[in-house]
Amino acid sequence: LGLLMQDFNIDAIDAAENAVTANPFDPNAWAIRAMAYSRNGSTGEAIASALHALYIASEDAVAQNPDIMAPARARAQAFLAEAYFYEEQYQRALDTVEAALDTYPDSGEAYYVRGLIKWLSPTLIDRIGALADFQTAYELAPSYHYIAADMMFLNAELAAATGEDQYVQDAISIAEQVLELNPNFPRALQWLANYNLRTVGDFNQAADYASRCTRANPNLARCYYIYGRAQMQLEQYIDAGDSFQQAIDTAETDDGLIGYYYWWAAEAPILLDNDCGDAMNYLREGWEIAQVSQDTGLIDSYAVSFRRCGSTIGQPTPTPIPEIAPEAQGADD
Fold it and tell me: pTM of the prediction?
């Protein structure tokens, strides 16, 4: 569970496998294994693991030993619901997590998963209700920092949707509280880095948080990307280029910003000394990614960069010269 909270998801699977091997009759071990597989996109394995946990923590087992087995059964039901959620079986997920709360009303995991469903399911969306569930979940399980992280992100989303500053202040407060307890919590560091970069404009502070994030978890491409963006603002172009390369190297295949990593990696040598030689390697590879993404703003940004380097590759039209994409200018993702 600790590895999952630090976003070491692959390592978490190995640890979960070791746990069920060491104690195959522990329903909590099987439930955590389900969570680990869900977070890695293997929902089928997650469902099987959660169902095995429920087999061990059966209704009869709960009746015989409610203090131990009721929380364990509710945890398994919660992570089964989470797997159904990732499978886009939203109503089934909601029914399952409600059953978890019937089993054990003080299940922090169940409140968290119900909040996740209310927040992100397209058919059951209720962001205010989701925030209330996250708050209850965190009160019941204050050591589960991933709950605080999603509360932080949801508050920021509500701030953007409503324009109410209190949501922003709540997000900042949550992030700072989590870092007091766990100074190396990557998601809080990433959020504060991004907030300082895009909203506050404090690029030194953004760079500090992003640097800490890359040290806390060297596998998070977004932290390297934000670090590079802050370094660009500080005119540290060589270091920024290194950060963007790290973002490229650590990016997952489904990372929706990878086209931007390449664009900014090309921008660093251009701004350093107008070096289009190094830039063109990034532009050519990133151009292919941009085309597949169908992100018109990003495609236009590549077209501008090709022109600046005297190339005709990637120009959708000869005129007019398009504006730089909002993301390239530093707008929110």
Answer: 0.78
